Amino acid sequence: MAVVASATPSHAEDLVFTLTNSTSSTLERFYTSPVGVDAWEEDVLGQDVLEPGERVEITIADGRSVCDYDLRFEFSADSDLDTTEDTQDLCELGSYEIHE
Question: Considering the chain, what is the average pLDDT of its residues?
Answer without folding.
Answer: 88
